[in-house]
Design a protein that fits this description.
Elements (H helix, E strand, L loop, with lengths): L2 H28 L5 E2 L4 E4 L2 E11 L2 E9 L10 E5 L2 E4 L16 E8 L9 E6 L2 E6 L4
Parallel strand pairs: 1-9
Antiparallel strand pairs: 2-3, 3-4, 4-7, 5-6, 5-8, 8-9
Length: about 140
Amino acid sequence: MRTRTLLLLAVGCGLAILVAGVVLLLQLTNQQQQTLSRIGERVRVGDMDVTVTDVSERDASVLVDIEIGGVDDPDGAEAFRLVVPSGALRADPNAGNHCGATSVDPQPCTLAFRLGDDPGSSRVLVYQRGEDRARWDLATD
């Protein structure tokens, strides 16, 4: 290939990268800012109402008391995750008042997350239903 052709290809690639960067920047600025919900605040996540009522730690586990309801769903509470420095944890299904199936009427239950060896102090509870997501900061100071 000739030098002129290579230079034109390089300029074309540079412009394509620039356009892709501008498109990404526009997507990031148009995203909804996701705020953290407060303990005790009722939050609507998709077709479900969720209220985190209490948080405690016991025996290397984080216990999150919630009220959840809005629709009959056998797996309605399975989408909760506790995000800690080592990754995202699922609730222990063998815990006492484990959250699982949901109903139209809000029902109280407890999510128990086993922390493991390196619990850290950062804890964010995340619940996603369809396209909607809610987050609660449960960090210990």
